[in-house]
């Protein structure tokens, strides 16, 4: 249900505004709205002073530092209790937190960059790993040549024939002052070490350049002497990297341990102070007084009044603004449902909130959604498996998370699935009937028409309920619209009666009065609802027929289960047949989870909600202390 | 012969709306995928939109059942 709201006006001396705002923040009851000036009561809008504006900008920067610091330290704030007035931060606290946030952010960023650099360096050295082993033997040869220059070259395996040519070219160019050592690599390439006497080095470099052969590049930080000198430095560095990385990670953890909790407290306090500052422009002021307006749940109005009276006495007055002075569309909306129905608010939450003064469909969704789902799946075995999944999800999820909500919706769905399973005598398809299970209502495998009638009848009940809610929702604000909806509802009932009488489900004597009633109601409907009303009436009858999907999906589900069971006997080996049957049941169960959910939702959102739901409500957001956002799972 | 015609009629009652549903769902699916790339929060709405044309094949199935079990 949508809880009743009262609009209140709080008046007081202007010098008490900050104190009153703090009290209201502690109470967390008032949804603030900017007060409207009237000709006999001119009001200015309070604005932040220069120092307050500076403070706001500074706090936003502090908040950015805190968030960045917490993010760098991988700290996700748990839901914490809101700060109470006793824990309100002093100006000195904000100064300390600003310094701390800046310092932690800077150090955390430095540590992150250091870890990234170490990881990159390690990856670079490891890229050279294959060269280390290949050149190790060759490098020993390099040391036997004093005053020699070494060139380290990679050649593709397919170009191995070029090595003798290279040898011949070098011999022709510099005579016998060189040596070539080769080593095949695991990648198929060939590592070449060319050692030449120092005076011939320039000529060799020219030859290599002409042949477009490139040396293996040595990273700059290990350079200054070629690969032979770089490799030992790189290996030494490779040994140092893990400890340097561990040290940086330990420092990160130490930062998180030392300052994490403090930063989270600071985050809450800064958010709180920012909220307080942002509330100021929603205040109306005169030279000596302030006016605050807003909505409070009617059941909590007395609490607000008592608290302000106790704290400020006659200095602050609270008065209720009569309902005639505000439009119901302006009032914020908060849904309040019993514990069992609350998870279904998530299904309604897919739509924008209902307008204030209309109807919250949650209780109806909580009954009809599991019922439709159960009728579509309708199997004791599947219901038990679903219940077990729901229990597991409930066990592994945290309160107030999406997973917990899903688990709480699964519960009633599993219950209705099991009940429908008993009605249709199904336990993993027709396995139940083979074990002697009898349907309490009918076997939907055989009795399609009764199942169709059941589905459409349920549709008629659901749609007529929606139309009834539409009348109730409109009767106060739009009586003419409510009357039109009433006539439309009566006509739907008369059409159903006439059809049932025509197919002899009801006595034939019902037919003529129903048709006469329709003929009388028709002009009234045109007058009240306009020329499109007959089309809407036909569309409503189409909506009722749409519930035939309950039967269609139900039949598809049971047929797939029956086919799965037939696999046990159809395949030669019993064991293979059982495995195939289980796999098919698994597929059917997966389909049974998805398709009935989507179609049960669709029946609600398109057919049912279309008859009464009036979206556009403003969410009730009382001015209060900041709390971290709810975790996703 | 009559039984063949009845069966054929029932098959057509499902097959034609099934093709229509498939065509409609392909169009909606394409549009939904594009919309989800821009606005992932439309996920639930997209799934529901894709389910809407299934009404055709479901009503076709009902008609087929009525033909077969009349």
Explain the layout of strands and helices.
The complex is a heterodimer of chains A (633) and B (70).
Chain A: E1 5-13, H1 17-27, E2 31-33, E3 44-45, H2 50-72, H3 91-127, H4 129-143, E4 148-155, H5 162-174, E5 178-184, E6 190-197, H6 201-210, H7 226-279, E7 284-285, E8 289-297, H8 301-312, E9 316-321, E10 332-333, H9 345-348, H10 362-377, H11 380-396, H12 402-424, H13 431-434, H14 448-474, H15 479-502, H16 511-529, H17 533-546, H18 548-570, H19 574-608, E11 618-619
Parallel strand pairs in A: 10-11
Antiparallel strand pairs in A: 1-8, 1-9, 2-8, 3-7, 4-6, 5-6, 7-8
Helix pairs in contact in A: 1-8, 2-3, 2-7, 3-7, 10-12, 10-18, 10-19, 11-12, 14-15, 14-17, 14-18, 15-16, 18-19
Chain B: H1 2-38, H2 43-51, H3 54-68
Helix pairs in contact in B: 1-2, 1-3
How would you characterize this protein structure?
The complex is a heterodimer of chains A (633) and B (70). Chain A has 633 residues and is of the alpha+beta class. Chain A folds into three domains: 7-43 and 283-338 and 617-633, no CATH class; 127-225, Alpha-Beta Plaits (2-Layer Sandwich); 359-611, no CATH class. Chain A is 60% helix and 9% strand. Chain A has helices at 17-27, 50-72, 91-127, 129-143, 162-174, 201-210, 226-279, 301-312, 345-348, 362-377, 380-396, 402-424, 431-434, 448-474, 479-502, 511-529, 533-546, 548-570, 574-608, and strands spanning 5-13, 31-33, 44-45, 148-155, 178-184, 190-197, 284-285, 289-297, 316-321, 332-333, 618-619. In chain A, the strands form three sheets. In chain A, strands 1, 2, 3, 7, 8 and 9 form a six-stranded antiparallel sheet that branches. A three-stranded antiparallel sheet of chain A has the order 4-6-5, sandwiched between helices. Chain A is flat and about 120 Å long. Mean pLDDT of chain A is 84; it is low at 79-86. With 70 residues, chain B is mainly alpha-helical. Chain B has one domain (2-68): F1F0 ATP synthase subunit C (F1FO ATP Synthase), CATH 1.20.20. Helix content of chain B is 87%, strand content 0%. Chain B has three helices and no strands. Chain B has helices at residues 2-38, 43-51, 54-68. In chain B, α1 runs antiparallel to α2. The two termini of chain B are 17 Å apart. The chains are: A alpha+beta (633), B mainly alpha (70). The A-B interface holds A 350, 448-449, 452, 545-546, 548-549, 551-553, 555, 598-599, 601-602, 605-606 and B 44-45, 47-48, 51-52, 54-55, 58-59, 61-62, 65-66, 69.
């Amino acid at each position: 249900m949508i809880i009743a709201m009262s609009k209140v006006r709080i008046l007081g001396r202007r010098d008490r505004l900050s104190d009153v705002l703090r009290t209201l923040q502690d109470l967390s009851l008032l949804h603030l709205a900017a007060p409207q000036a009237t000709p006999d009561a001119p009001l200015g809008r309070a604005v932040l002073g220069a120092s307050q504006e500076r403070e706001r900008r500074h706090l936003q920067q502090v908040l950015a530092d805190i968030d960045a610091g917490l993010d760098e330290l991988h700290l996700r704030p748990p839901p914490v209790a809101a700060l109470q007035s006793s824990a309100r931060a002093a100006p000195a606290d904000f100064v300390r937190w600003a310094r701390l946030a800046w310092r932690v952010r800077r150090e955390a960023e430095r540590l992150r960059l250091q870890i990234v650099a170490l990881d990159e360096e390690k990856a670079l050295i490891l890229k050279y790993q294959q060269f280390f082993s290949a050149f190790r033997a060759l490098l020993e040869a390099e040391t036997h040549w004093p005053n020699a220059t070494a060139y380290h070259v990679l050649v593709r395996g397919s170009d191995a024939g070029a090595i003798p040519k290279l040898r011949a070219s070098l011999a022709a160019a510099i005579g016998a002052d060189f040596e070539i050592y080769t080593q095949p690599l695991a990648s198929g390439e060939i590592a070449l070490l060319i050692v030449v006497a120092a005076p011939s080095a320039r000529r060799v470099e020219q030859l290599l350049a002409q042949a477009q052969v490139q040396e293996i590049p040595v990273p700059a930080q290990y350079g200054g002497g070629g690969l032979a000198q770089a490799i030992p430095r790189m290996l030494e560095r490779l040994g140092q990297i893990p400890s340097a990385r561990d040290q940086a990670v330990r420092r990160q953890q130490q930062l998180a341990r030392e300052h994490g909790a403090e930063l989270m407290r600071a985050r809450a306090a800064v958010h709180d102070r920012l909220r307080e500052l942002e509330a100021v422009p929603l205040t109306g002021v005169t030279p000596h007084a302030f006016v605050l307006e807003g909505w409070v749940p009617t059941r909590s109005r007395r609490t607000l009044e008592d608290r302000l009276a106790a704290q400020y006495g006659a200095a602050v007055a609270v008065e209720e603004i009569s309902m005639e002075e505000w439009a119901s569309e302006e009032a914020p909306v908060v849904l309040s449902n019993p514990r069992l129905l609350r998870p279904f608010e998530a299904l309604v939450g897919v739509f924008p909130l209902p307008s204030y003064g209309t109807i919250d469909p949650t209780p109806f969704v909580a009954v009809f959604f599991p019922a439709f789902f159960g009728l579509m799946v309708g199997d004791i075995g599947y219901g038990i498996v679903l219940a077990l999944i729901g229990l597991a999800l409930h066990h592994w999820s945290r309160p107030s998370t999406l997973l917990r909500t899903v688990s709480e919706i699964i519960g009633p769905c599993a219950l209705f699935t099991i009940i429908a399973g008993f009605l249709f005598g199904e336990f993993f398809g027709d396995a139940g009937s083979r074990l002697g299970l009898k349907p309490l209502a009918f076997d939907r495998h055989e009795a399609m028409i009764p199942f169709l009638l059941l589905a459409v009848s349920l549709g008629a009940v659901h749609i007529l309920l929606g139309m009834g809610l539409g009348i109730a929702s409109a009767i106060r604000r739009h009586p003419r619209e409510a009357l039109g909806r009433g006539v439309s509802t009566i006509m739907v009932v008369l059409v159903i009666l006439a059809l049932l009488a025509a197919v002899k489900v009801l006595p034939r004597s019902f037919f003529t009065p129903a048709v006469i009633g329709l003929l009388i109601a028709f002009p009234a409907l045109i007058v009240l609802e306009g020329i499109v009303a007959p089309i809407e009436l036909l569309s409503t009858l189409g909506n009722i027929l749409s519930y035939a999907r309950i039967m269609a999906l139900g039949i598809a589900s049971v047929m797939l289960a029956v086919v799965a069971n037939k696999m046990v006997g159809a395949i030669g080996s019993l064991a293979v047949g059982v495995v195939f049957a289980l796999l098919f049941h698994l597929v059917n169960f997966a389909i049974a989870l998805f398709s009935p959910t989507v179609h049960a939702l669709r029946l609600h959102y398109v057919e049912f909600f279309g008859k009464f739901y009036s979206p556009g409500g403003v969410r009730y957001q009382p001015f209060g202390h900041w709390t971290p956002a709810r975790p996703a799972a | 012969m009559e039984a063949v015609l009845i069966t054929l009629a029932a098959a057509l009652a499902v097959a034609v709306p099934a093709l229509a549903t498939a065509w409609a769902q392909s169009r909606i699916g394409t549009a939904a995928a594009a919309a989800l790339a821009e606005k992932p929060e439309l996920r639930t709405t997209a799934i529901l939109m894709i389910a809407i044309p299934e009404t055709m094949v479901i009503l076709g199935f009902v008609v087929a059942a009525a033909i077969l079990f009349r």
